[in-house]
Design goal:
With about 425 residues, the protein is an alpha+beta fold. The chain has three domains: about 140 residues, Gcn5-related N-acetyltransferase (GNAT) (Aminopeptidase); about 160 residues, Gcn5-related N-acetyltransferase (GNAT) (Aminopeptidase), CATH 3.40.630.30; about 100 residues, Nonspecific Lipid-transfer Protein, Chain A (2-Layer Sandwich), CATH 3.30.1050.10. About 30% of the residues lie in helices and about 30% in strands. Strands 1, 2, 3, 4, 5, 6, 7, 10 and 16 form a nine-stranded mixed β-sheet that branches. It has a seven-stranded mixed β-sheet with strand order 9-11-12-13-14-8-15. A five-stranded mixed β-sheet has the order 19-18-17-20-21. A hairpin with a 2-residue loop joins strand 12 and strand 13. Helix 5 crosses helix 8.
Length: about 425
């Protein structure tokens, strides 16, 4: 018989006792979420418990007389960050019952969540919210941009029909079959191998993501005849699109088949028109050429921090640990820029002083000193800088960051460039 898992002690924040959740709390938590948010659906709530990374202890609770009055959930994830794989926690379902608000309980819960993330070894937390001002007080920074295009379905089809080069490599477009999951996994891995922001998806996660059914259908593009091929090595699937109503929430294709994307979009447009939906929305990385395809069809591209007042936010749980994990990536960037000399870049983050040294033999991180060449900013700007949300020169021009020398600013631009920080929408959809 396996030994019982150790029980984690409560997390205290001031005078507020924050408890780790247990399986027996699920019913009480669901009723609280339903009373405040009128959701999630019962199916979605149970689907969350089937997540391969789910543990009841990742729910943090405040109770009064045995009743749950506040709750937040930490969802363990792994983020693809260039060549790195970084552990992170997604903050979800922060709620306090109305009769217990204005007592600072949510703040105590966030403080406990921040400590729990650090204790669990995650590099940073992430969330989506329409009240960023609340989370800023607890060390969270707006980080990440929405990326989507919108155009009229009929205009997209007309633009597609007027471009015969898109049909010189005709593909067979049809609905996806469950036995073809390995093909979706392969294409996702091809497109996200060096990306910044998407989640790492294991096979178990893929099966959970599809099983929770937060989409209408998946269409695939095949290069070759439409036949059932159980051997993934010879499967002809070269692209896929996940569709929910008139939104294409994920579209990825084998880079060797550049026409797969437009052909999948054309099929999605035809389906939208059949269901009397006049617009088509594509949600994909900002560098995706399909955005230009839609804007050329008279559409609009949206790439901003806020979308319908919703923003992405992140918080570094362990800045020093993250910088050490990023050592190989920083060395890659330094060498790719053709820099032969060693750099010592100081980072003044609030009242804290750090020194980052990068050279041929790697990168090191020390605290307590700056050196001659340094940059200074607050913790929120440091979060955006490290995670590639902002360009150092742009931040300096807007007085969000100061540099002791032009050399320091140049080095910061090499080590911390703005990258296409982007997360697929599909992972965050609710059923």
């Amino acid at each position: 018989m396996a030994p019982a898992a150790p029980v984690k002690e409560p997390l205290w924040s001031g005078t507020v006792r924050v408890e780790r959740g247990r399986a027996g709390d699920h019913s009480d938590i669901y009723q609280m979420l339903l009373a405040v948010f009128h959701g999630p659906s019962r199916e979605e709530f149970h689907a969350a418990q089937d997540d391969p990374a789910y543990e009841p202890a990742n729910r943090l609770l405040v109770k009064r007389t045995g009743r749950c009055v506040a709750h937040v959930q930490l969802v363990p994830r792994t983020i693809l960050f260039g060549s790195l794989r970084l552990p992170a926690d997604q903050l979800a379902w922060l709620v306090t019952l109305p009769e217990f608000r204005s007592q600072g309980i949510a703040g105590h819960l966030l403080s406990a969540a921040n400590r729990a993330m650090t204790a669990d070894g995650t590099q940073f937390g992430m969330l989506r919210t329409r009240i960023p001002h609340f989370f800023r007080r607890w060390g969270w920074a707006v980080c990440g941009r929405h990326s989507r295009s919108r155009a009229k379905a009929r205009q997209i089809l007309a633009h597609y029909s007027a471009a015969p080069e898109l049909r010189r490599q005709p593909l067979n477009i049809r609905l996806w079959r469950h036995v073809e999951l390995p093909a979706l996994m392969r294409i996702y891995a091809q497109n996200t191998a060096a990306a910044t922001g998407p989640l790492q998806r294991t096979e178990a996660y893929w099966r959970w993501l599809i099983g929770r059914k937060a989409f209408d259908h998946i269409i695939v593009a095949l290069a070759g005849p439409d036949k059932l091929e159980l051997n993934e090595a010879t499967a002809p699937i070269v692209g896929y699109a996940v569709v929910r109503q008139n939104r294409v929430v994920e579209l990825l294709a084998d880079p060797a088949y550049p026409t797969a994307g437009p052909q999948l979009l054309a099929r999605a447009c035809a389906d939208a028109i059949e269901h009397d939906q006049h617009d088509l929305i594509l949600e994909s990385p900002p560098h995706d050429p399909l955005h230009k395809f839609l804007t050329d069809a008279g559409g609009q591209f949206h790439h901003h921090e806020a979308d319908d007042q919703e923003v992405f936010m992140m918080r570094l749980s362990d800045p020093a640990g993250l910088m050490r994990r990023m050592g190989p990536l920083l060395t890659e960037r330094w060498q790719a820029a053709g820099m032969s000399r060693r750099c010592e870049l100081g980072l003044a983050v609030g009242e804290q002083k750090h020194l980052l040294t990068v050279g041929r033999r790697g990168a090191t991180w020390a605290t307590g000193r700056l050196g001659r060449n340094f940059i200074a900013c607050n913790r929120a700007e440091f979060t955006r800088l490290v995670l590639g949300h902002c360009d150092p020169a742009e931040a300096a021009g807007q007085n969000r960051l100061t540099a002791s020398t032009q050399v320091a600013l140049q080095w910061a631009g090499i080590l911390f460039p703005r990258v296409g920080l982007w997360r697929p929408t599909w992972d965050d959809l609710t059923a």
